[in-house]
Design brief:
The complex is a heterodimer of chains A (198) and B (136). Helices cover 69% and strands 2% of the residues of chain A. Chain A has helices at 4-32, 37-54, 60-74, 79-94, 102-120, 130-138, 144-156, 181-197, and strands spanning 2-3, 99-100. Chain B has 136 residues and is of the alpha/beta class. Chain B has one domain (7-132): Rossmann fold (3-Layer(aba) Sandwich). The chains are: A mainly alpha (198), B alpha/beta (136). The interface between A and B is medium-sized, with 22 and 18 residues.
Chain lengths: 198, 136
């Protein structure tokens, strides 16, 4: 079973990973985006860490809902509502329980990823976050490590894709040959989950 | 004020504070002649950069809500996704609606319609119909 502290550590580990990789995320966002993904996410997850410290939530679901709400408020770019919706929906699915099973986490994340797809109207193959999240969540039934690896591979697989959503889609063919920044940060999120799960 | 007399509010959400404010001023100027519906601009990030400030969007919607609904017009990317996410989470006033419309033309059409006292459906339709106005 996973307790509230597990989810707090997941968010803290994600904040650390985003901070460590911020320059790389912004670099990936330079040729096909507006060169702010790393700084936007860093601002968001720094605020998440502060919010979780200021008013520590009492359940796993509450941790993720607070994190999601904070991201929507603070990121400023499209990744705010997208990651915000992912975490809030996942948190809502976890309900009020003080501890949740790995199976509950898997199902909740599955619902969260579905909410992201609905919000952005994207599908796997469109060169978005979903190209890491969908295979990542599918591999959760094996292990957290398998999910992180699948998300990482999914992010790498966005390189030859043609962007069909967001600012990168305006580039058409010129979006090909670049790794998607959102898929890359999604792999960090699932990598942090595997890290805290040990 | 009775519900029938309430006016639909308009919120303009842009990546740029200057764009949101200028389009609001333009729409209000072109609609002038009678009472002008309440308009609020929600542009840029909290630190004055380009992007979307969700808290500002929520505040703007509350500011123009007179009980007859609020129409939100957005530019692109994070503006669209932020308003959609706020609607899903129920954080905007009851009767708040994201309309699919060209930002500037839709804003003018919405403000003109709302200023006549038109109900929410008619204001939203006027904004969307602005897509049909061809320029060449």
């Amino acid at each position: 079973m996973r307790d509230t502290d597990f989810f707090r550590r997941w968010m803290t580990a994600t904040a650390a990973a985003v901070e460590r990789e911020a320059d790389r995320l912004t670099e990936l966002d330079s040729p096909i985006g507006d060169a702010d993904h790393g700084s936007n996410l860093m601002r968001g997850f720094t605020a998440v860490r502060a919010a979780l410290e200021a008013e520590p939530p009492q359940t796993p679901g509450a941790v993720l809902q607070l994190a999601g709400r904070t991201l929507i408020s603070t990121v400023g770019g499209a990744s705010g509502p997208l990651y915000g919706t992912l975490l809030r929906r996942t948190g809502k699915e976890l309900g009020e329980a003080a501890e949740v099973s790995d199976e509950a986490v898997r199902q909740a994340l599955y619902a969260g990823v579905g909410a992201v797809a609905q919000l952005g109207g994207a599908a796997p193959g469109d060169k978005t976050m979903l190209d890491a999240l969908v295979p990542g969540v599918a591999a959760l039934s094996t292990s957290y490590r398998a999910a992180a690896d699948a998300a990482e591979n999914g992010a790498l697989a966005t390189v030859p894709m043609l962007a069909r959503k967001g600012r990168a889609s305006y580039l058409g063919e010129r979006s090909i040959g670049h790794q998607d920044p959102g898929a890359t940060s999604s792999a960090l999120l699932l990598g942090a989950l595997a890290e805290v799960a040990g | 004020m009775t519900a029938a007399a309430a006016v639909v509010g308009i919120v303009l959400v842009s990546h740029s504070a200057a764009v949101a404010e200028s389009v609001a001023a333009l729409a209000a100027g072109l609609a002038a002649g009678g009472a002008v519906a309440p308009i609020a601009a929600a542009g840029g990030t909290a630190d004055g950069g380009l992007g979307t400030n969700a808290d500002r969007v929520v505040a703007a919607a509350r500011e123009v809500d007179r009980g007859a609904g609020v129409v939100l017009l957005v530019d692109l990317g994070s503006s669209v996704l932020t308003v959609r996410a706020l609607l899903v989470e129920g954080e905007l006033p009851e009767g708040a609606r994201l309309v699919d419309a060209p930002f500037l033309e839709g804003a003018v059409a919405a403000v003109v319609a709302a200023s006549t006292g038109a109900p929410l459906d008619a204001v939203a339709a006027a904004a969307t119909e602005a897509y049909d106005y061809r320029k060449s």
